Amino acid sequence: MNYGEEIAYWFLRFNGCFPISTFVIHRSSRIARTSDCDLLAVRTPHVYEEIGGRPEDWDAELAQLLDFDGRTIGMICEVKTGRYALDEIFRSGYVDYSLGRLGLIPREQIQAVGADLSMNAVVDVSDKYRICKLLIANEEKRNGSFLFWTLTRAEAFIRERIAKYPKEKYADRMFFGSELLQYTIQKHRWQENMTDEEE
């Protein structure tokens, strides 16, 4: 993963999701060339952890938009650290392929739900499941049919979570498999110590 994908991964993970990165979309009958989806994620409605997994720990806007407590949510997430064109992201065949991997709808419904997702950022496929497309990028383009979060906003959310549980995150920093996250936790500790010294 590049740094943007790592930020997006931990943003989703710290919002109670089970993400997988770099999902390979193989060339097949509907896919002309092999590609990938930066992140696929599933979030179930009853997520809870004592440290960092309480309702007040989630990104409030994302939780409200997707109704975290209401349905199981499938997320198809793309990450862009530089310029991009709208026609490069969430292509219909790739979205359909990703829907199959998420496994929240029967195979025979994939194309219909994919067509619905081509025009909407969020689609309810039943009273139990909701699927969304989420772009996390530096540059916002408003006319896309997807949810949008900036990389800086996602990174700020991660830093806020670390600041909320500084002792626990610092003590357990080496258990996180991301060097970027380990460094972010360590950096917060350095900043705390500098503040203490100034006082």
Compact overview of the structure:
With 199 residues, the protein is an alpha/beta fold.
Characterise this structure.
There is one protein chain. The chain has 199 residues and is of the alpha/beta class. The protein has two domains: 3-163, no CATH class; 165-199. The chain is 40% helix and 21% strand. Strands 1, 2, 3, 4, 5 and 6 form a six-stranded mixed sheet that branches. Helix 1 (3-13) crosses helix 5 (151-164). The model has no long low-confidence stretch (mean pLDDT 92).
Question: What are the defining features of this structure?
Answer:
6 strands; alpha/beta; 7 helices; single chain; 199 residues; 6-stranded mixed β-sheet
Quote the average pLDDT.
Answer: 92
Give the class from helix and strand content and strand pairing: alpha/beta
Shape: globular
Largest sheet: 6 strands, mixed
What fraction of the residues are assigned to beta strands by DSSP?
15-25%
The tally of beta strands, per DSSP, is 6
**How many helix segments?**
7
Helices and strands in order:
Elements: H1 3-13, E1 18-25, E2 35-43, H2 60-66, E3 72-80, H3 92-102, H4 110-119, E4 122-124, E5 129-137, E6 147-150, H5 151-164, H6 166-171, H7 179-198
Parallel strand pairs: 3-5, 5-6
Antiparallel strand pairs: 1-2, 2-3, 4-5
